[in-house]
Amino acid sequence: MKLNNIQDVEDFKNAVNRCKESVWLESPRGDKFDLKSMFSQYLAIGKLVTERSDDLELFASNPEDETILLKFFESHSETL
Q1: Which of the residues 19, 23, 26, 30 has an alpha carbon 20 to 30 A from that of 13?
Q2: Are 13 and 7 contacting, i.e. CB atoms less than 8 angstroms apart?
Q3: Rounded-to-integer distance, Cα 8 and Cα 13, Å
Q4: Dihedral sign for Cα atoms in the order 39, 45, 51, 53
Q5: What pLDDT, on the 0 to 100 scale, is given for residue 20?
Q6: Would you say residue 45 has pLDDT above 70?
Q7: For all residues of the chain together, what is the average pLDDT?
Q8: Which residues are paired to 25 by β-bridges?
Q9: Which carries the bigger pLDDT value, residue 18 or residue 46?
Q10: Paired strand residues for 2
């Protein structure tokens, strides 16, 4: 999923933290930001709220985690 506009960063972080397995953002250049790591999470969210946010795509390795993230996007439709 491509992300465009994360306005509620805390809700996004809470959704990611509820995920059980790997969740990451990936840039077109192949840079990966592991959102389960606090350090990577800060770097990635910094990119999401700046000029490069439309370049990042969200991935989850577990289908149950995808459901958690989809529920976040349902309630924050401006993000996609």
Answers
A1: 30
A2: no
A3: 9
A4: positive
A5: 97
A6: yes
A7: 87
A8: 33, 58
A9: 18
A10: 57
Q: Is the pLDDT of residue 51 over 90?
A: no
**Count of residues in the chain:** 80
Q: Which of 9, 36, 31, 32 minimizes the C-alpha distance to 21?
A: 36
76-to-4, 32, 37, 72 alpha-carbon distances in Å: 11, 23, 23, 6
> What average pLDDT score do residues 36-64 get?
83
Banded pLDDT at 46 (limits 50, 70, 90): confident
* Pick from 72, 58, 51, 54: nearest CA to 25: 58
Taking 60 as the threshold, does the pLDDT of residue 55 lie above it?
A: yes
The C-alpha atoms of residue 30 and residue 56 are separated, in whole angstroms, by 10
Q: Could you tell me which of 17, 1, 7 has the C-alpha nearest to residue 45?
A: 7
Cα–Cα distance, 72 to 16 (Å, whole number)? 9
